[in-house]
Amino acid sequence: MAILQGILLLATFLVLVLYCMKGGNLLLGFLVTAVLWCVIGLVPIQTVVTAIFQDSVAAYGGTIAVIVFGAWFGRVLVDTGIAGYIIKKTVELAGDKPLVTTLLINIVCMLIFTSAFGVGSVMAIGMIILPILMSLGIDKRTAVGAYMLAVAGGMWLNVAYVSQFFAVFTGIKYDNHYVKFGLIATAFHLVILIAYILFNYGLANKKKLRAWSAAEQGASDTQLKGYVVFVPFIPIIMVAIFKWQPVPAFIMGIFLGLLLTRNLNSYKMAVTKAQKTLYDGVADSGLLIGMLYSVNIFQAAAKQIAPILQDLFGDFIPNSPIILLIAFAVFAPLALFRGPLMIWGSGIALASILQAMGTFDEKFLFIIFMILPVSIVASSCPTQSWTMWALNFVKVDTKEYIKSNLGWAWALSVACLVMGYFVYYL
Question: How far is Cα 50 from Cα 53, in angstroms, rounded to an integer?
Fold first, then answer.
């Protein structure tokens, strides 16, 4: 009976992997697989309705709050013109130097996304950035590739993004230990971003436009003061240095963002802007929240059937962290298309099983499953929602995008996995 159950569980896992890699709806896929695993594993109905479908979701409330307030803050940065102002000033500072402008714009975007969160924010800022880069003579593929790398580079320190993983790895916190790893990973990412731009710059056409003219095409016309450039970094400063919790840190950023852009000058203006940015922020993150809820349900189901898989496949699972680390480095591209190494895809099954079996330390599993979604997926996978938008926006073929970015993303993955093992885990 146990062997039959194990085979059926493995079969449903493989079906889930194929379903995710073919672009299936993740929320539906995780929920259906969770139910199937409960049926196959003969999990008692009371455990299913209470521990799996209720308690797992209810316990996720704190993380959902961080995601919502992070997305709200991202919308404040965009809708008040702060992001556009920073980009415009960066372009003006670079002058009539396309390469310098491209480097500075993407580095600034990377810094903005250490706090900004949500697909809406990525799209809104991309509507400013991508036309500027292309007007400077940067080819479309390089413009999109650089911008995606810049967005991904901010995620290492983005409180709202990193907090998603804490629902799966409950013993991990955004503390000094993580900040140290995040800063080094960000530095690695910055090196890759700069190298990518320098390498691909020779492929760009040589037509040059004045940088400030390009900025006027998309950047905000709002007359803001120079001190607003500090607003995007308020949440991370409050969390990392002053040890605030994420939600009050985002509220501080939202308040100052509205105040310093004169959106609190009247009651009516304050209410209108606050409501609109909150509504848009929730809309940006709504589907993500639904998917993460389904991930929690699936993980709870995986814990219930883990003993069956442990008995059947325990002898085949490596006990050495080094071997697993090498496997993740060698097969890192399997995170593409929501594959088995992408935790926000079919990889949640592998992560849940390894975690439930207790073979590896939670810190180790966190670090290996956290790296690839940033280094591979956000940097080179066309199934990422905002990447699909960007490729369609500038009309770049998905195969060309993968060909352009994957090698750099793979090198980044290997570097961060090795670094993470020594800096964060040991």
Answer: 6
